[in-house]
Design brief:
- The structure holds two protein chains of two kinds.
- Chain A is mostly helical.
- Chain A is built from 13 helices and no strands.
- In chain A, helix 4 packs parallel to helix 12 and helix 5 crosses helix 7.
- The two termini of chain A are about 45 Å apart.
- The longest helix of chain B has about 40 residues.
- In chain B, helix 5 packs antiparallel against helix 6 and helix 7 packs across helix 11.
- Chain B contains 13 helices and no strands.
- In chain B, about 75% of the residues lie in helices and about 0% in strands.
- The radius of gyration of chain B is 24 Å and the shape is globular.
- Classes of the chains: A mainly alpha, B mainly alpha.
- The interface between A and B is large, with 47 and 54 residues.
């Protein structure tokens, strides 16, 4: 018994070492990690890194729409606020929306997928049909309807995104659970008398962690993109919140002269979403051995 | 005959999915808000007006009764009246649909005609300069916010270079209405200057909309072709001495495209969803701009009408794609 536990500890140590090294060898996944790292650093250290940390709320009409220069690295906006500083504080909102929305979708979607996958019957069918309905409509359309009903605010954006993203997790978990049920080790654990609770929590869930992690990483990018679209449409957190999508909407009337105003937040969204997408692709290649063959073919 | 049975089977599934969509929109519009009538009436309505509207709309009845009524109305094509335009929402949407379809179809055609050949070339010339360049395209296509891409294209091509119009569908008079699609109508009436102008107006919004779709198509076609390349039947055909072009464009493409066809259905969803913001950026007079304007005016019924409409179109398209998939891939012809 003791030997076995030592060996499994070794195995998990190997896995803990294996994933980062494989990821580091994959240049695009590494780029993804670097981009996400930059986002996190900007969000956490925003008050330190910002050249004008008070500009999120203060107005400087005299400094309105200045071009990028030594005083304002990315220029100023219509209120005279420093675009670069507001961008850094906007990273906090982006992370907040992404993490809570994807986290909530995980908490709702994974149990639903497990239950629907483990039990066979009308209830499972019903759960999956419900998630199919949500998947049958473009996420942005449903999110618009929900955000419009609830009114523009940060919690409502998060709610609208969670309410429309959980089916992706339910789908993935359901499919993986059904596949695993045919495995001998699951069958034998059930034959030994393990309760459904024990079986799913200790045996099924750890074995389907990889696809969930991959889906979560891609989901972060997707959610952030949709949140920016909601912000652009005026359904996001109200001003003066430095939300990136709303900033782009505000900047439109000052084009083509104030080109920096529209360009900077769009680039920030682009790099952030690309970071999560690249990491998701890289994680899939490392974590899913079934796909590694096509990886070498690439 | 089996194909017909399959199509019918899919059609049977179509009804509950559509009903599910209506349940979702019903819950969003009637159950989630604290007072749905106040939302419909708008911010300027007095309490007495709200109460009068509540009785008029039947919102004082039990929810199940309201739901049956809601479905019955939608089946008759009644989506309520817009508070802003004072016209039936279904009429407003139908009026604006051709503009959206024209834009979406052009974007789709562009992405298919460009994306699939590029995906094949990318797989054939693996790790070439083209392949690496296309990887950049596929990665950025899925990461770029379409409203930002549209604004950047406007900034460069319309504002700085002046090559294309900034926004709108056409300046001046539209061609005589036959189908409602400007390109088609102009071509049918032989009005080539208008055709050119319409095409020029389409260029930027279609490019904006096509970019993410193109990225997805290149990616899937490339993966599909790489997969097929290693299969035995390709090896056999090569051993038989078939010309490379015949193997690639006739036999490999057909096998490789099965997954791409499924993608096209999902792509239509991306395009439709992207159309909301893209149309708003380019003031394109379609249902997307209508939805965004309704959001800005808090025209609640109109937003919900758009949701039902867009969801239905999406479900119908995916139904058609499912059937098309079985036509391309005989293995799918089982129930």
């Amino acid at each position: 018994m003791r030997r076995r536990s030592r060996r499994s500890k070794e195995a998990s140590l190997n896995a803990a070492w294996f994933v980062p090294t494989r990821l580091a060898r994959d240049r695009s996944a590494l780029l993804g990690l670097v981009l996400i790292g930059l986002l996190v650093v900007s969000a956490v250290l925003a008050p330190v890194l910002a050249t004008h940390p008070d500009d999120v709320f203060e107005l400087h009409p005299a400094e309105r729409l200045r071009a990028p220069g030594p005083a304002h690295w990315l220029g100023t906006d219509r209120m005279g606020a420093d675009v670069y500083s507001r961008l850094l504080f906007g990273a906090r909102i982006t992370i907040l929306i992404g993490v809570i929305a994807v986290g909530a979708s995980l908490l709702v979607g994974v149990p639903i997928g497990l239950v629907a996958g483990y039990y066979h019957g009308w209830f499972s069918d019903l759960l999956m049909r419900v998630s199919d309905v949500f998947l049958a409509v473009p996420q942005v359309v449903l999110a618009i309807a929900i955000a419009q009903t609830l009114g523009p605010s940060l919690p409502n954006v998060i709610l609208a995104l969670s309410a429309t993203y959980w089916p992706w997790f339910a789908r993935v978990v359901y499919a993986e659970t059904r596949t695993l049920q045919k495995e001998v080790f699951v069958e034998s654990t059930a034959a030994l008398g393990a309760s459904p609770w024990r079986l799913t929590a200790l045996h099924v869930l750890p074995n389907i962690a990889s696809p969930i992690i991959v889906r979560a990483s891609i989901g972060m990018g997707f959610t952030i993109l949709t949140a920016a679209a909601l912000g652009f449409l005026g359904l996001g957190p109200p001003p003066p919140t430095p939300e990136w999508g709303r900033t782009i909407a505000e900047s439109r009337e000052f084009l083509p002269d104030a080109w920096w105003y529209a360009t900077a937040p769009g680039l920030a969204i682009f790099l952030t979403v690309m970071g999560f997408n690249l990491l998701g692709d890289g994680l899939r290649d490392v974590l899913d051995p079934r796909l590694r063959r096509s990886r070498t073919a690439r | 005959m089996r194909l017909l049975a399959l199509a019918l089977y899919r059609l049977v599934w179509f009804v509950p999915t559509l009903l599910g969509l209506l349940v979702v929109t019903f819950v969003i519009s009637r159950v989630i808000p604290a007072d749905p009538v106040a939302l419909v009436a708008g911010e300027t309505a007095t309490p007495a007006q709200v109460e009068a509207l509540r009785r008029e709309l039947g919102y004082d009845r039990p929810l199940p009764v309201q739901f049956v009524d809601y479905v019955a109305r939608l089946v008759r094509g009644d989506m309520g009246t817009s508070i802003f335009t004072r016209r039936p929402i279904a009429e407003d949407l139908a009026h604006r649909l051709p503009a959206t379809i024209e834009l979406t179809v052009v974007a789709m055609v562009v992405s298919v005609l460009v994306g699939i050949p590029l995906g094949v070339l990318s797989a054939l010339w693996r790790n070439s300069l083209l392949d690496h360049a296309l990887r950049v395209v596929t990665v950025s296509g899925l990461a770029i916010a379409s409203f930002w891409l549209g604004i950047m294209l406007q900034l460069l091509f319309a504002m700085r270079l002046g090559w294309t119009p900034l926004n709108g569908r056409l300046q001046g008079f539209p061609p005589r209405t036959i189908t409602g699609f400007y390109l088609l109508d102009a071509a049918l009436t032989g009005d080539w200057p208008t055709f050119g102008m319409a095409l020029l107006h389409l260029a930027l919004p279609a490019a904006t909309l096509a970019f993410p779709a193109l990225a997805t198509l290149v990616r899937f076609t490339r993966a599909g072709v790489l997969d097929v390349m290693q299969s035995n039947f390709v090896l056999y055909e090569r051993a038989m001495g078939l010309p490379r072009s015949v193997i690639v464009w006739k036999y490999m493409l057909r096998s490789a495209l099965t997954s791409t066809v499924t993608q096209i259905g999902l792509l239509f969803g991306i395009l439709l969803a992207g159309a909301v913001v893209t149309e708003a950026v380019f003031d394109w007079p379609g249902i997307g701009t209508y939805a965004v304007n309704s959001i800005l005016r808090s025209d609640y019924n109109a937003v919900m009408g758009f949701t039902v409409w867009a969801g239905t179109i999406f479900i119908v398209v995916n139904l058609l794609v499912d059937v098309a998939h079985t036509l391309v891939d005989p293995r799918e012809r089982t129930l």
